[in-house]
């Protein structure tokens, strides 16, 4: 039973179901996100972190099949690789995109409103999470999703 099954899963009823994901694509997206967020910290660009927030929002609210970096992976990289050995549930990854959206949106607001420290801190947190996934395959948002699911199950 995955973290997204059963009554303890975070509310996803209003969202369309996503098919299982190729974990290599998830890590590719995390690597691209890592580069983008590192560029934000180097440049201080509120517009670049706002663009990343839109990338997160698209995946979070429209679904993982519309995730910009995932589409790039499916079109340009996946055809050159063999089929994945396994697939992973999309719900935890989608939740992590929502968390990323929140941090990137706060970062954009910080940079664009002159609250640079807020922008730096929020962007750095998002960068740390993206780097953990890209480098080590550890999805912090996915782990949060599982913890929330178990907490809800324990309360029920």
TrEMBL record:
The keyword 4Fe-4S does not apply. Keywords: Membrane, Transmembrane, Transmembrane helix. It holds the Pfam family DUF4395. The keyword Cell division does not apply. Signal peptide: none annotated. It comes from the Bacteria. The chain crosses the membrane at residues 28-48, 54-77, 98-121, 127-148. Residues 22-150 form the DUF4395 domain. This is DUF4395 domain-containing protein. The lineage of its organism: Bacteria, Bacillati, Actinomycetota, Actinomycetes, Pseudonocardiales.
């Amino acid at each position: 039973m995955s973290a997204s099954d059963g009554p303890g899963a975070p509310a996803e009823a209003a969202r369309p179901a996503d098919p299982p994901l190729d974990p290599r694509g998830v890590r590719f997206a995390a690597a691209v996100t890592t580069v983008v967020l590192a560029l934000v910290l180097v440049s201080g660009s509120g517009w670049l972190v706002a663009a990343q927030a839109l990338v997160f929002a698209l995946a979070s609210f429209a679904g993982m099949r519309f995730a910009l970096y995932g589409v790039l992976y499916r079109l340009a990289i996946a055809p050159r690789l063999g089929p994945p050995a396994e697939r992973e549930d999309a719900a935890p990854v989608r939740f992590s995109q929502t968390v990323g959206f929140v941090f990137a949106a706060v970062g954009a607001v910080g940079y664009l409103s002159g609250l640079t420290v807020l922008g730096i801190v929020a962007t750095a947190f998002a960068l740390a999470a993206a780097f953990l996934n890209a480098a080590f395959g550890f999805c912090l948002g996915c782990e949060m999703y599982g913890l929330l699911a178990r907490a809800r199950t324990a309360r029920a």
